[in-house]
TrEMBL record:
Residues reported to bind heme: C406
Family, per entry: Belongs to the cytochrome P450 family.
Residue ranges, annotated region (Disordered): 125-161
Keyword Heme: yes
UniProt KW Membrane keyword: yes
Major subcellular location class: membrane
InterPro entries xrefs: Cyt_P450, Cyt_P450_CS, Cyt_P450_E_grp-I, Cyt_P450_sf, Cytochrome_P450_Monooxygen
UniProt superkingdom: Eukaryota
Pfam families: p450 (PF00067)
Name of the protein described by the UniProt record: Cytochrome P450
Length: 458
């Protein structure tokens, strides 16, 4: 618990990395909790986008004392904190995809959420294909002019649909409850025997995990037995994709399908839904951008049916999405674990080192973005659609980087544009006077007090 991590820590220190002093067995967790408590008491009516010191107050403080690269401790696990894109470039330059893993310390804690983390040696290739698969199938369906979606829905017996919808709602409710339970529990990540510190949350998460698996299993099994009456939704597309070619290598097992569903909720649904949520906030505050996007949708799509090629032509909407991901990145950090020694500027980051890359800090770094860093300015992506004028190519990583980059980025862009198009063509919206700006991290970056909006039908 202590000797090995401490040896790793000493190696890092010898290589010139400093950081806040840890104590046994919590590491720096007590300081982190204390600083969070004082910052979270400050939900406010004024909306400021410089959120770093609010959502990561401890990192913001330690940066002032130790710079943009330092060591801190989660329990008995040392983490190398990184908010310097040049340092990140250097350490990732010579690293092959397989030499990066996810910190093992998170593996067990998050198991009820993502069964797939067992494939830690790299992205599960079946998984990657199936996440991108719906995208291809969606395009293919539209190319073929197959518009039988509604039709096939009607074919499906009403009772079965109702039954499945009820189960799906229940699954979502339980997944959300599991997230809350796990969030409290994972605050003691890295602390030896932390299972006993939050026994209720821990057993609750495990219980919910089992219930969710059983419900998803029953949905998949009943889908499988309904040959010839497919629903055209993501699960069916995944199931169809897993059958394509029919070879056993390509097929997903039922338990892999269950894992995929959970991944879609946490890695896929949550992130895209939050990107849309923050977009609604920013568009409610900037009605000129609401109007610009509405105009663009009118020009590109008109009254016709949305298809993938049209979505690609919604350029301004793409800028808005990027600017939202910059200011309010739903995935606020990226984690890595070195699987081999990494050499950087004569120093060595030893194999096994955990790394915590702070995306919120880099997205709000004045030295990378300029004096307008806290302003909502989608036009910064006009001439530089990938980096928005960021002074460093590794300074804007909303979907991560390298071999472990988000496998759902294309899908999320499609979902985002479809949903936003549907909202913009039906409603105009403004911020409710009851809105309280309360961004905080609960695994993802969320408005903890919700986002009340006033909608007006167009
Ligand atoms: C706005 C939406 C999204 C954002 C901001 C986002 C962001 C991220 C980030 C930052 C990572 C970590 C990458 C890394 O470690 O380098 C990640 C990983 C991942 N994302 Fe996304 N994501 C989004 C949507 C989606 C969607 C729709 C899916 C589809 C299911 C998805 C599936 C995944 C998976 C499976 C991984 C893990 C990859 C691995 O470590 O093997 N994401 N995402």
């Amino acid at each position: 618990c202590w000797v090995l991590p401490n040896q790793a820590y000493q190696k890092l220190r010898r290589n010139g990395f400093s950081g806040p002093t840890p104590s046994f067995p919590l590491g720096n967790i007590a300081d982190m909790k204390k600083s969070l408590r004082s910052s979270s008491s400050s939900s406010s009516l004024s909306i400021r986008h410089d959120i770093h010191s609010r959502v990561f107050p401890y990192f913001s403080l330690w940066q002032k004392l130790h710079g943009k690269v330092f060591i801190y401790w989660l329990g008995t696990e040392p983490f190398l904190y990184i908010a310097d894109p040049e340092f990140l470039r250097k350490i990732s330059a010579g690293v092959m995809g397989k030499s990066w893993g996810k910190p093992t310390v998170f593996k067990n804690d998050r198991k009820p959420m993502f069964g797939y983390v067992k494939h830690d040696g790299g992205i599960n290739h079946k998984h990657a294909r199936s996440v991108d698969g719906p995208n291809h199938l969606w395009k293919a369906r539209n190319r073929r002019g197959d518009r039988n979606h509604e039709h096939s829905r009607r074919d499906h017996s009403e009772d079965e649909l109702r039954n499945e919808l009820r189960k799906r709602k229940e699954v979502f409710k339980k997944l959300r409850a599991m997230q809350m339970a796990l969030f409290k529990y994972t605050r003691y990540v890295g602390v030896p025997f932390s299972n006993f510190m939050c026994p209720y949350q821990n057993s609750e998460a495990k219980k919910l995990g089992k219930e969710i698996d059983a419900m998803l299993l029953s949905i998949i099994t009943s889908r499988k037995s309904n040959v010839g009456q497919p629903q055209k939704d993501l699960l069916s597309l995944l199931m169809a994709e897993s059958q394509v070619g029919g070879s056993s290598e390509k097929k997903l097992t039922t338990s892999e399908l269950v894992d995929e569903c959970k991944t879609f909720f946490f890695a896929g649904h949550e992130t895209t839904a939050l990107a849309l949520t923050w977009t609604l906030l920013l568009l409610a505050m900037h009605t000129e951008w609401q109007n610009q996007l509405r105009e663009e949708v009118k020009e590109v799509i008109g009254d016709g049916e949305i298809d993938a090629t049209m979505l690609a032509r919604l350029k301004k909407m793409g800028w808005v999405m990027n600017e939202v991901l910059r200011l309010y990145s739903p995935a606020p950090n990226v984690q890595r674990q070195a699987r081999e020694d990494i050499r950087v500027d004569g120093a060595v980051i030893p194999s096994g080192t955990n790394m915590w890359i702070d995306l919120v800090s880099m997205n709000h770094d004045r030295s990378l973005w300029g004096d307008d860093v806290y302003e909502f300015k989608p036009e910064r992506f006009k001439d530089d659609s990938l980096y928005g004028g960021c002074k460093h190519k590794m300074g804007f990583l909303p979907f991560g980087f390298g071999g472990r980059m988000c496998v759902g980025r294309n899908l999320s862009m499609l979902e985002y544009k479809i949903v936003l198009t549907l909202i913009l063509t039906r409603f105009s919206f403004s911020l409710s006077p009851n809105y309280c700006h309360s961004p905080s991290i609960m695994l993802s970056l969320r408005p903890t007090q919700g986002l009340p909006l006033i909608f007006q039908q167009l």
